[in-house]
Design goal:
There is one protein chain. By secondary structure, this protein is mainly α. It has helices spanning about 5-25, 30-40, 55-75, 75-80, 85-110, 115-125, 130-135, 145-175, 185-220, 225-245, 250-260, 265-270, 275-290, 295-300, 300-325, 330-340, 345-355, 360-395, 400-405, 425-435, 450-455, 470-475, 490-505, 515-525, 535-545; strands at about 420, 440-445, 460-465, 480-485, 510-515, 530. The chain has 2 domains: about 5-175 and about 185-390, Na+/H+ antiporter like fold (Up-down Bundle); about 420-545, Rossmann fold (3-Layer(aba) Sandwich), CATH 3.40.50.720. It is built from 25 helices and 6 strands. Strands 3-2-1-4-5-6 form a 6-stranded parallel beta sheet, with helices on both faces. It is globular. The termini are far apart. Bound molecules: adenosine monophosphate. Adenosine monophosphate binds next to helix 20 and strand 2. It comes from Pseudomonas knackmussii (strain DSM 6978 / CCUG 54928 / LMG 23759 / B13). Pfam families: Na_H_Exchanger, TrkA_N. This is Inner membrane protein ybaL.
Length: about 550
């Protein structure tokens, strides 16, 4: 076989990540841990196969670009503003406390100031992936606590973007190499100037040009071209901004995502056309794992333990007290503290930068990685612990229940109702019609923005993935009459149907399909009726032809 390093690295990365990710899922731990361990296996510190390091790091860079593009795409000022009173001061103070704790630890280990700063900052930011998943699993996204945690995370994201921008400029003075005779101010001003120029170009030009291009491409009707356009925008802006303005790939990608965020249409489209993002984000975690030397767990157990304690207790205790100080109830403070007691992707990006700028010793990266893996593993246990604690408190003081109650998502009071899963192209039409007829309706929708908008329109909405039985129960499955599954993904629809069927033998389940095989699968999963979109379209078209009155041919003039 000829030499194919890129192919080998990709294949090994995907296969290992898949196997260990699936294993982690099975063991009910975060798949992130699986991906990181896949990296450790493919890395140079464990026996057996060793992937190409340089190539993996470059693939990881692509992962970072797509990840940051995703952060930009989901960046919602509205989410932040709705809880700004607590989220902004809370996050700022918590980042400060965690950074100081990390710096203190670094000082003990004799690292220079710059290294301590990077290390502290890396410990101070939580992983979006882990946080959202934890909130989703516990149906907390839709509560006040969940909203505060998400707003808090947005502030952390912003602080990290700022750090990624400023760190390279400050590296000279932080490492004390004395290269920057112009002082600290000049490089910062220069960087901020470049960033400002980049932002101005994006706002003045990009904001108009990008949606315009996307609209034109959408009009061609080629999905392939559309996906390509989104990728070209993400990578093109990230790379172009790095070359032209000297800003990092990450910042460029973040802005590219934000620009698409401007219009609902391009946001949705970009979101749907980027399964590639997930794939490369996974490879990013694999490549981070490759750098990890597990020997640190044996050689330096104390620093590992201290790092772990800063992440899991230092950060969360600080967050707990801040939230309490702002007068929020105990359960809110506990949930937010538990949500933030972990670190992930941003920390990896940051330590990667720190090591490459020669600020952070490699040991720092290993500590952050060990701390991340351990804290992500422990995170679900923290949630279980606070749930127990809350239950016990409530038993002791039942009157306190009121403050918990207020924080629950709006209750569903409908009965004998239709539950509609998915309010998209199909769901929207169904919902309009049922509302018109006055049929009681509860919508389950997993996109938060969309759910909020529907609620504003007066609909009863449960936010979450309907494949989760808890979510179905929130929609008052017990007394529903119909379940209308109007989502395009057949596997997921089957999962929803079988969950609902096992809970309710007498429910009328109607599902949507696109293929014959899907129809069969959905029927086996418990649907009473499956409507296949394509069949209905064909029928509509044929019917139209059949209904057209027969046209009488004009008599042809007789030819001579
Ligand atoms: P469309 O593809 O236009 O038919 O839209 C489908 C809608 O269903 C989108 O708004 C999705 O957010 C939503 N959706 C997809 N899967 C689920 C799910 N498992 N639970 C709840 N909503 C979903």
């Amino acid at each position: 076989m000829h030499h194919t390093p890129l192919l080998t690295t990709l294949a090994a990365g995907f296969v290992l990540a898949f196997v260990l990710g699936a294993l982690a899922q099975r063991l009910r731990i975060s798949p992130l841990v699986g991906y990181l361990l896949a990296g450790v296996l493919a890395g140079p510190f464990t026996p057996g196969y060793v992937a190409d390091q340089a190539l993996s790091q470059e693939i990881a860079e692509l992962g970072v670009i797509l990840l940051m593009f995703g952060v930009g795409l989901h960046f919602s000022l509205k989410d932040l503003l709705s809880v700004k009173a607590i989220a902004i001061p809370g996050a700022v103070v918590q980042i400060g406390v965690a950074t100081l704790l990390g710096m203190g630890l670094a000082w003990f280990m004799g690292w220079p100031f710059g290294g301590g700063l990077v290390f502290g900052l890396a410990l101070s930011v939580a992983s979006t992936v882990v946080l959202l998943r934890a909130l989703e699993q516990r149906q907390l996204i839709d509560t006040q606590r969940g909203r505060i945690a998400i707003g808090w995370l947005i502030v952390e994201d912003l602080a990290m973007v700022l750090t990624l921008v400023l760190l390279p400029a400050l590296a000279g003075s932080l490492s004390g190499s004395g290269e920057t005779s112009g002082g600290v101010l000049l490089p910062i001003l220069l960087t901020l100037g470049k960033v400002a120029a980049f932002v101005a170009v994006m706002i003045l030009g990009g904001r108009r040009l990008v949606p315009w291009v996307l609209e034109r491409i959408a009009a061609t009707g080629s999905r392939e071209l559309f996906t390509l356009a989104v990728l070209a925008i993400a990578l093109g802006i990230a790379y172009g901004s790095a070359v032209l303005f000297g800003v990092s790939f990450a910042l460029g990608a973040f802005f590219a995502g934000m620009i698409l965020n401007e219009s609902e249409l391009s946001h949705e489209a970009a979101e749907n056309s980027l399964p590639l993002r997930d794939a490369f984000a996974v490879l990013f975690f694999v490549s981070v794992g490759m750098l990890f030397n597990p020997a640190i767990l044996i050689h330096e157990p104390l620093p590992v333990l201290a790092t772990f304690l800063v992440i899991v207790f230092g950060k969360s205790i600080a967050a707990y007290f801040i939230v309490r100080m702002f007068g929020h109830p105990n359960n809110t403070a506990l949930t937010i503290a538990a949500s933030l007691a972990q670190i992930g992707e941003f920390s990896f990006i940051l330590v990667g930068l720190g090591v490459s700028l020669h600020l952070l010793p490699e040991q720092g990266r290993d500590l952050v990685l060990a701390g991340a893996i351990l804290s992500i593993l422990v995170n679900p246990l923290l949630f279980i612990a606070i749930e127990r604690l809350q239950a016990r408190r409530e038993e002791a003081q039942p009157t306190q229940g009121a403050s918990v109650e207020e924080d629950l998502p709006p209750p569903v009071r409908e009965h004998d109702h239709a539950i509609l899963v998915g309010h998209g192209r199909v769901g929207e039409l169904i919902s309009a019609r049922l509302q018109g007829e006055g049929t009681p309706l509860v919508v389950i929708e997993d996109k938060r923005e969309k759910a909020a908008e529907l609620r504003e329109r007066g609909l009863s909405v449960v936010v979450g993935n309907a494949a989760n039985l808890d979510v179905l129960n929130q929609a008052n499955l017990a007394s529903a009459r119909w379940l209308l599954i109007a989502i395009p993904n057949g596997f997921e629809a089957g999962q929803i149907a079988s969950q609902a069927r096992s809970a309710r033998a007498d429910l009328e389940i109607i599902a949507r399909a696109h293929f014959d095989a899907e129809v069969e699968y959905l029927e086996q999963s418990g649907a009473n009726l499956v409507i296949m979109g394509e069949r209905e379209i064909a029928q509509g078209m044929a019917q139209r032809v059949e209904e057209t009155p027969v046209r009488h041919e004009p008599e042809m003039p007789q030819s001579a």
